[in-house]
Amino acid sequence: MNVLTDLLEDYDYLPDREYVIIFRIGVLHLILFDERKELCGSFPHKYYMEEIMTEREKMLAGELYDCGDAELLTRWHKAKDLVRDYNHTDSADTEKKETILRELLGGKGSNLWITAPFFADYGNNIYFGNNCEVNMNCTFLDDNVIRIGDNALIAPNVQIYTAFHPTNAADRFGEPKEDGSFEFCKTQTAPVTIGNNVWIGGGAIIMPGVTIGDNVVIGAGSVVTKDIPDNTIACGNPCRVMRANQ
């Protein structure tokens, strides 16, 4: 299909007018001017063009993306270096730790305390509110956004995942490359949101796409696969609401 030809055929009065063709937000537009060079119309073309997305944009949109993309790998390596520096900083050196967290994280409020060691994928997809405490040995796989509200208490060994993969092994890796080089497995993502005044018990696992409401307690060792509503205490594998949290 010749999009330009089809576009011109749509407007049989074009020979008498000047025109400009532009690409705006994924849609082909025709900008018409009269003989005085004044704008006389803007028309979206009937054919929608596929918007070109970066691998990072695909990742955050929840589409299949290439983990080996150069932009993503550059940030991934930077995050790993920052995490290494944080984990090896003297415990009492709060100024240096604050500097590292500001460079590592997507955003943070005041009074964030993270006990080393702490692990993340990209770091810049993690957002904290105010007055949050993360205990030792927590892992945040922030391939999509992890957003944590105010007054969060996250116990040791908590894992928050935003990435998942096709269950079929062939779909995960596809066909082997002819040159035998390594190819990252196919990946998709879904964000995790944790509300205000939430306590997540030790060893809990939060799965991709989960939202945990305000004033929630998640019991130690729970595997949270579905949303947990406000003002509840939940635990188990899979995690279920046990009672209201008054």
How would you explain this protein's 3D organization?
Helices cover about 20% and strands about 30% of the residues. It has about 250 residues and is an alpha/beta fold. It folds into two domains: about 45 residues; about 190 residues, 3 Solenoid (UDP N-Acetylglucosamine Acyltransferase, domain 1), CATH 2.160.10. The radius of gyration is 24 Å and the shape is globular.
SSE topology sketch:
Blueprint: H1 3-9, E1 18-24, E2 27-33, E3 39-48, H2 55-61, H3 70-87, H4 94-104, E4 112-114, E5 118-120, E6 126-128, E7 132-134, E8 138-141, E9 146-148, E10 153-154, E11 159-161, E12 163-164, H5 169-173, E13 188-189, E14 192-194, E15 199-200, E16 205-206, E17 211-212, E18 217-218, E19 223-224, E20 232-235, E21 240-244
Parallel strand pairs: 4-7, 5-8, 6-9, 7-10, 8-11, 9-14, 10-15, 11-16, 14-17, 15-18, 16-19, 18-20
Antiparallel strand pairs: 1-2, 2-3, 12-13, 20-21
CATH class of the largest domain: Mainly Beta
Q: Mean pLDDT across all residues, rounded?
A: 84
Strand content: 25-35%
Strand order of the largest sheet: 4-7-10-15-18-20-21
Low-confidence stretches: 1-50
Strand tally is 21
Topology order in helix (H) and strand (E) letters? HEEEHHHEEEEEEEEEHEEEEEEEEE
Q: How many helices?
A: 5
- The rounded Rg comes to 24 Å
Cα distance spanning the termini: 63 Å
Shape category: globular
CATH topology of the largest domain: UDP N-Acetylglucosamine Acyltransferase, domain 1
What helical percentage do the residues reach? 10-25%
CATH superfamily of the largest domain: Hexapeptide repeat proteins
Q: What kind of sheet is the major sheet?
A: 7 strands, mixed
The CATH architecture term of the largest domain is 3 Solenoid
